[in-house]
Amino acid sequence: MSLSILNNIPALQAENQLAITTTAANKSLQQLSSGSRINSGSDDAAGLAISDGLNANVAALNQSSLNATNAVGSLQTADGALSQVTALLNRAVTLATEASSSGLSTSQSTAINTEFQSLVTEIGSIGSSTNFNGTAIFGSTVSAFTSDGTTNGTVNISATVADLSATVTALQATSLTGANPTAGATAAQAALAVINTAISTVSAQRGTLGATVEQLQAASTVDTNESQNLVTASSNITSADISTVVANDTKYSILEQTGISALQQANQQAQTVLKLLQ
């Protein structure tokens, strides 16, 4: 073996290998501290691109679920208001049925009609004042845009909440009193038919809203489940396998120590040349 003082090849080789080992050890430490296998594009460019795409899908799905939930809240507000309208109309049925009897006095008929008109006024107030997040409910279209973040994965679910103006107008045109008890009974019976029509209209509207609420809730559930699955897929790509990383970190730690020892020995070999000069 020739001896040279110009280039210490063994030392250069040991130094190069030590640098490689140190880089790998630092990468293991970074993975341990972050919990992620991919901390930069150089770690896994393809995996990072896939993970970023999945995360974008997750963001769209999470917001879509929130959109559906908000729409459900709006429709449930409308349904709650219509439930109260139904209760008022049922009371109106009671009053109209009572007024349909010819055995009432004029004052009794007047009192019954006064309460009936108050019910009609309250129904009108519900129709004009009910709102969700500051937006009027009746006479509006409630919609929810859902998307999974892809071009073909968009759905728009909507329902129109009819206003109560036509129902209120029809009720306002009726009366439970007349010029005499007989006329009052006839008027009350006619009003009863109008009230029953109003009840049917409100019931049909509640059915439509209920069906849309079910559709929105189903869409929200699907979006949530899909989001969870995509989060799992993304995690499988980016998350570090801690047991493997710990094993690698231990290996590189040992290799660093042996590499430093090898570099020291290589440098000591070069100094043997000095012995030839003694």
Overall description:
- The protein is mainly alpha-helical and 278 residues long.
- The protein has 2 domains: 9-35 and 241-276; 58-238, f41 fragment of flagellin, N-terminal domain.
- It has helices at 9-34, 45-99, 106-129, 165-172, 181-238, 242-270, 273-276, and strands at 131-132, 135-136, 140-147, 154-161.
- It has a two-stranded antiparallel ribbon.
- Helix 2 (45-99) runs antiparallel to helix 3 (106-129) and helix 3 runs antiparallel to helix 4 (165-172).
- It is rod-shaped.
- The mean pLDDT is 87.
Write a concise synopsis of the structure shown.
The chain folds into 2 domains: 9-35 and 241-276; 58-238, Up-down Bundle (f41 fragment of flagellin, N-terminal domain). The longest helix is centred in the C-terminal third of the chain and has 58 residues, at 181-238.
Count of alpha and pi helical runs: 7
Within CATH, the superfamily of the largest domain carries the name f41 fragment of flagellin, N-terminal domain
Kindly identify the CATH topology of the largest domain. Answer: f41 fragment of flagellin, N-terminal domain
- Rg from C-alpha positions? 40 Å
The top level CATH class name of the largest domain = Mainly Alpha
> Main β-sheet: number of strands, strand sense, barrel status?
2 strands, antiparallel
From the N-terminal CA to the C-terminal CA, the straight-line distance is 20 Å
Query: How much of the sequence is in beta strands?
Result: 5-15%
Average pLDDT for all residues = 87
**Do you know the CATH architecture of the largest domain?**
Up-down Bundle
- In terms of structural class, how would the helical and strand content be classed? mainly alpha
| Biggest β-sheet: strands ordered side by side in the sheet | 1-2
In total, how many beta strands?
A: 4
Order of helices and strands: HHHEEEEHHHH
Poorly predicted sequence stretches spanning 5 or more consecutive residues: none
- Tell me the domain tally: 2
